[in-house]
Automatic annotation (TrEMBL):
Protein's UniProt name: Uncharacterized protein
Length: 345
């Protein structure tokens, strides 16, 4: 029977087809990528077998930094360029492609993603990338904040500038204080500022209008992350000497607590010190992960299959695979369902 190499995992063709057909029934995989560059390999945690795998990466490219996952692929920023340039890669098939250049050259803009189905191929359903703010060259020299948005459509493989006013204040905040994490929920693409006190900025796709939202306990959170939980806008954050909680946005823009990290798990994760600084978080439909480094233990909050209940659990970090020691390093965590199709993206 024909088989394919999947990192260090060998899957027969029948198993590959079954996996692709059932991906939406299982939680997403956790992909651990180096934060400081495109290393020779990355590591993936299989939620079904609860084990780690090593995935060799494309050695022909190195000046890359991961941004987010989309349709089973990884969106990357080219770090060797002054102006923003993006690329996509499939770490399971080692495919790589650069995206077209933006219409307006800009540095350090916020990047947001919209995908219709996270378990299907991007070739079938497509995805869109939004780039907002950033700095561009001024006509008379120097630099100026860019109060515009560009959108990339994967089905057309082109960028276009979106019409509509963008408050200059938002352009500044998106450029200076906003990381690349974004969440699309109920027609609005959200970003959260990366400096206290935290706040949210939202772009309504149909009307091209902007809105701002407050963040619960905004001035007390040591870390805060914006995630999606079953399509709902969700914030995960922890306070100094306190708990880490999960808030979900409800009707009338009210936040309500929907989860809290169990005390014992939190103390184990933090090494006995109640200090949430430096904690990272990634979430998507079906799972929310708290993590720091590849070798450190992680906390995951998963939806129980067949019900509305979510459960907290502990995941051991990746310290060795097949007897080979893995050196500890800081990671960027992404959640995705493996896409094993060799598509010409």
């Amino acid at each position: 029977m024909a088989a394919i190499m999947w990192g260090q995992v060998r899957l027969p063709e029948l198993a590959r087809r079954r996996l692709l057909g059932r991906a939406h029934h299982h939680p997403p995989w956790f992909l651990a990528l180096p934060t400081r560059g495109w290393g020779p390999s990355c590591y993936a945690h299989n939620p079904v077998g609860e084990n780690w795998h090593v995935l060799p990466l494309d050695h022909s490219v190195s000046a890359l930094r991961p941004i987010a996952s989309i349709c089973g692929l990884v969106l990357l920023r080219v770090t060797s360029k002054t102006w923003l340039e993006l690329a996509i890669s499939n770490p399971f098939t080692r495919q790589f492609r650069s995206l077209p250049k933006l219409n307006v050259a800009r540095t350090n803009p916020a990047v947001g993603l919209i995908q219709h189905c996270p378990t299907q191929s991007c070739r079938d359903l497509g995805f869109k990338i939004y780039v907002a703010g950033g700095m561009s060259e001024a006509a008379g020299g120097g630099a100026v904040y860019q109060p515009t948005i560009e959108m990339y459509d994967s089905l057309r493989d082109t960028w276009h500038v979106i019409d509509g006013p963008m408050p200059v204040e938002f352009a500044v905040r998106l450029t200076v204080w906003t990381p690349n994490e974004s969440v699309y929920s109920k027609g609005i693409l959200y970003w959260m500022t990366s400096a206290r006190a935290y706040s949210l900025m939202g772009f309504e796709i149909m009307t091209n209008k902007w809105r701002e939202l407050s963040v619960p306990m905004a001035d007390r959170l040591e870390f805060a992350a914006l995630v999606s939980r079953n399509g709902n806008l969700t914030i995960v954050g922890g306070t100094c000497g306190g708990d880490a909680c999960v808030w979900e946005l409800g009707e009338d823009d009210d936040w309500r607590v929907v989860g809290k990290v169990p005390f014992e798990l939190g103390m184990k994760f933090l090494g006995g010190k109640v200090n949430w600084g430096g904690v990272k978080c990634v979430g998507s439909n079906g799972a929310v992960w708290l993590y720091r480094e590849i070798g450190s233990g992680m906390i995951v909050w998963r939806e129980v299959i067949g019900g509305e209940k979510w459960e907290w659990s502990w995941i051991e970090g990746c310290c060795s695979i097949r007897g080979k020691e893995i050196k500890n390093f800081p990671i960027k965590g992404l959640l995705l369902h493996p896409n094993l199709a060799h598509v010409a993206f």
